[in-house]
Q: What sequence folds into this?
């Protein structure tokens, strides 16, 4: 088999041809969990309106436990919202959908499959040759060459997240949901993973909705950062980051954007303190 | 402290220590029988002689084969029925609601308590001891397979549903491989129990022509040959150990090792 | 190789291999006539008849099947795994009372039971047995009834709670370790305690209940109906063996010694021949194999005792549980014309 270099793939038609160019459209998204053992119900999301454009990289940040993961789970179809209008890819969400792949915080790579089989997991409908070509392409893209036959238990945490990302990309989804995928990694690995993700996103141009509580991560990755309030979550601010990538963490504009997010979160904290 | 950090023991020590214990054990046995001048309890050497006597008469391997025949077939049938049944109970709630109570009720009944019924139903054919062995392994296999499904990490099921797997592929590509390690552990435990029970079963229900190691013990007891009783015990121990070592080999495969290996 | 292929190949190979060897060792077909027995001299005619049949005709007509205890034997009989069995008479009668369709067709022996105490025991007379723990083969055994009958005659208080049901082969060890004060069962298990030096005879059955019956040959009614010829052959063979064993009882006892050597074989009692020789000769009337016809008076006495001891409810009669038609009064059977080649 010929080696397929990390060139942008053009073998599959990109399917995100949505009329208004919106990948995600949320209107008044609300979520209330029923109270446990006689406690009153807990309101987690108190009305969110948000549009995500096709090909856009949007990061949701907010304090721990604010409900940002719940937003992502609802978008991914794993949880049902209590109210509001949720439109993804031009259609209401009815459950998980292979056109939108979720990358899990706790790593959803299957431990009983090796790297190659994990990446090829979503490709059962392709011919064998196609599958092998796609797998080789994404193995190279996420930097796992030489580890094709390794099992997840033999890989580091960062490498396992690369496998999961490659598995998501190989399925050629319109959108990738990423729920704090680098949360469990050490600082240097995290930095490397971010810059690799940016590089990959630039070559694949997928819509990405990414959840994190790390402000630096948000500023490094996002086209727009959506800052959420503490529970029940509302949108505190939307901060566009119009900086060229890769981003220089010491550039004045970068620091400025970072400060705006801090401000959006910090002011709220102060306001709550009074 | 050295206690806190396990160091790899040298091979010679790993061999020497258990050998020493074995030699001391056999020594104490010999001395104890000699001191008490027991007429009934055999010395270690007499047990070895007893085994040799059985081997030269040609009954030793016949009995071993008979016991293995019963235990392996009953175990295989229990596994073929118990694993799918357990997976069904773990996955499909109505089946669980329907069958779990009766399983929990039957599970604590010792296979020995089934002996009268097994003779009534199967007489003294091979089916009688095999039924007892089947029962003894069917319940642990079913219950561990059921628990294995419930213990699947939710993230694997969510990933699977995200990729839009159909029922069949969900089962073959995710549920089965995810539960395999715990199923295998359940099978290993069940095989041990099955081997325990074959001996007990043969002490009561067996065709003397085919014999078996449990039969050997009971028969030698009736005949007052306590050297052969102990020989039977030793053989049961050794074969049980070999069976366990064999099935343990399966736990080394990549398909299941992820669940046992500590990261 | 993957786990799947190794597990599949491995288990198929092992199962296949074990099965092949197993069937190689056990290819001898099971005969369609199975007779149960225990390794006690009460059932001596079972191995003797089988062996002589084999020697004379090249093959036996039935498979003798050894048991260790009566409960398993009874269950195998009910399950129709056994076509006929040597069994303690009251148990056969009780099974009939419970509706199991069987018939007693012949006796196994007369006498041949002993009550043993430990040689150091203070028990010297039957009266000393009061309040002592005694192992019996079954509540539905004539060993139980002989105790009941003897206790009544000697004025000893009968207490069912002191009688412990024990498989006869386990009784010698129980006596040696003094877990019970006395044991009562068929020979040669009682004599074994004597020979091994820890048992002492308190009484022999012949001395307290002459012509005592403990075991009988019982046959399933459907077998009697459908295979009458084979049953007749079996009963005749058993009767011939009885006659043969006792033929020279009071002279050379040669047949008794031959019978002992046959029964001692591994496939039958698996006991020491000296032990069985001892039981059959010291004294020779310790157990007898003549006068084995099924007679009403004998069984009505057993039935009456059983009702008194509370093991029967008295709802079945002699005609329900006995079939005397195989060797009716007036028909005499001759002993085998056969000698064991040494």
A:
């Amino acid at each position: 088999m010929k080696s397929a270099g990390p060139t942008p793939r053009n073998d599959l038609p990109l399917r995100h041809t949505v009329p208004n160019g919106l990948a995600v459209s949320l209107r008044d998204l609300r979520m209330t969990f029923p109270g446990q053992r006689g406690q009153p119900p807990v309101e987690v999301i108190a009305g969110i309106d948000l549009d995500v454009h096709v090909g856009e990289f949007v990061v949701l940040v907010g304090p721990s436990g604010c409900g940002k993961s719940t937003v992502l789970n609802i978008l991914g179809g794993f949880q049902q919202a209590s109210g509001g209008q949720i439109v993804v890819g031009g259609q209401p969400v009815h459950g998980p959908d292979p056109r939108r792949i979720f990358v899990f915080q706790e790593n959803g790579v299957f431990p009983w499959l090796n790297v190659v089989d994990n990446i090829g997991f979503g490709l059962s409908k392709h011919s064998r040759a196609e599958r092998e070509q796609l797998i080789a392409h994404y193995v190279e893209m996420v930097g796992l060459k030489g580890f094709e036959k390794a099992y997840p238990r033999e890989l580091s945490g960062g490498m396992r997240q690369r496998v999961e990302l490659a598995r998501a990309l190989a399925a050629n989804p319109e959108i990738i949901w990423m729920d704090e995928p680098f949360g469990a990694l050490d600082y240097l690995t995290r930095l490397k993973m971010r810059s690799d993700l940016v590089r990959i996103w630039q070559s694949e141009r997928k819509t990405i909705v990414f959840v994190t509580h790390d402000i630096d991560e948000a500023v490094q990755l996002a086209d727009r950062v959506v800052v959420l309030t503490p529970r029940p979550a509302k949108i505190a601010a939307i901060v566009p980051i119009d900086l060229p990538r890769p981003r220089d963490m010491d550039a004045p504009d970068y620091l400025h954007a970072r400060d705006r997010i801090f401000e959006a979160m910090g002011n709220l904290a102060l306001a709550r303190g009074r | 402290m050295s206690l806190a950090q396990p160091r790899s023991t040298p091979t010679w020590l790993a061999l020497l220590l258990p050998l020493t214990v074995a030699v001391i054990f056999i020594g104490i046995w010999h001395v104890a029988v000699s001191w008490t001048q027991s007429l009934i309890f055999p010395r270690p050497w007499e047990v070895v002689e007893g085994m040799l006597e059985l081997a030269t008469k040609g009954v030793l391997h016949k009995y071993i084969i008979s016991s293995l025949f019963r235990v392996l077939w009953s175990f295989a049938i229990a596994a073929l029925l118990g694993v799918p049944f357990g997976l069904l109970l773990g996955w499909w709630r109505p089946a669980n609601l329907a069958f779990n109570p009766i399983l929990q009720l039957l599970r604590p009944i010792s296979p020995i308590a089934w002996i009268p019924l097994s003779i009534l139903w199967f007489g003294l054919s091979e089916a009688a001891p095999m039924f007892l062995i089947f029962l003894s392994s069917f319940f642990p296999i079913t219950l561990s397979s059921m628990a294995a499904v419930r213990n699947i990490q939710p993230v694997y099921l969510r990933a699977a549903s995200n990729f839009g797997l159909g029922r069949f592929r969900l089962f073959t590509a995710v549920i089965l491989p995810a539960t395999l390690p715990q199923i295998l552990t359940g099978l290993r435990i069940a095989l041990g129990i099955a081997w325990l029970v074959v001996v007990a079963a043969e002490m009561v229900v067996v065709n003397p022509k085919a014999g078996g190691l449990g039969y050997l013990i009971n028969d030698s007891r009736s005949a007052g040959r306590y050297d052969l009783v102990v020989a039977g015990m030793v053989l049961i121990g050794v074969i049980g150990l070999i069976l366990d070592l064999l099935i343990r080999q399966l736990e080394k495969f990549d398909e299941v090792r992820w669940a046992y290996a500590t990261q | 190789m993957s786990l799947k292929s190794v597990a599949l190949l491995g288990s198929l190979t092992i199962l296949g291999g074990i099965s092949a060897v197993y069937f190689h060792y056990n290819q001898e077909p099971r005969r369609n006539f199975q007779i149960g027995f225990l390794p006690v001299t009460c059932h001596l005619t079972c191995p003797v008849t089988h062996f002589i049949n084999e020697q004379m005709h090249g093959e036996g007509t039935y498979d003798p099947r050894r048991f260790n205890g009566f409960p398993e034997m009874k269950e195998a009989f009910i399950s129709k795994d056994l076509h006929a069995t040597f069994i303690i008479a009251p148990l056969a009668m009780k099974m009939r009372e419970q509706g199991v369709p069987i018939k007693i067709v012949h006796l196994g022996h007369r006498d041949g039971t002993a009550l043993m105490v430990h040689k150091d025991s203070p028990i010297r007379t039957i009266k000393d047995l009061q309040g002592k723990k005694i192992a019996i083969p079954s509540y539905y055994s004539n060993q139980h009834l002989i105790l009941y009958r003897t206790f009544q005659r000697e004025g000893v208080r009968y207490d069912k709670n002191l009688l412990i049901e024990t498989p006869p082969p386990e009784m010698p060890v129980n006596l040696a370790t003094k877990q019970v004060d006395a044991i009562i069962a068929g020979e040669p298990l009682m004599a074994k305690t004597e020979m091994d030096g820890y048992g002492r005879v308190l009484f022999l059955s012949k001395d307290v209940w002459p012509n005592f019956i403990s075991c009988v040959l019982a046959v399933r009614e459907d077998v009697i109906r459908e295979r009458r010829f084979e049953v007749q052959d079996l009963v005749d063979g058993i009767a011939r063996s009885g006659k043969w064993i006792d033929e020279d009882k009071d002279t050379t006892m040669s047949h008794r010694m031959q019978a002992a050597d046959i029964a001692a074989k591994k496939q039958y009692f698996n006991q020491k021949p000296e032990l069985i020789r001892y039981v059959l000769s010291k004294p020779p009337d310790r157990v007898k194999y003549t006068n084995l016809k099924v007679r009403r008076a004998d069984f009505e006495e057993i039935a009456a005792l059983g009702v008194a001891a509370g093991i029967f409810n008295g709802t079945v009669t002699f005609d329900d549980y006995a079939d005397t038609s195989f060797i009716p009064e007036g028909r005499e059977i001759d002993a085998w014309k056969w000698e064991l080649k040494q």
Summary: The longest helix of chain B spans residues 167-204. The radius of gyration of chain B is 23 Å.
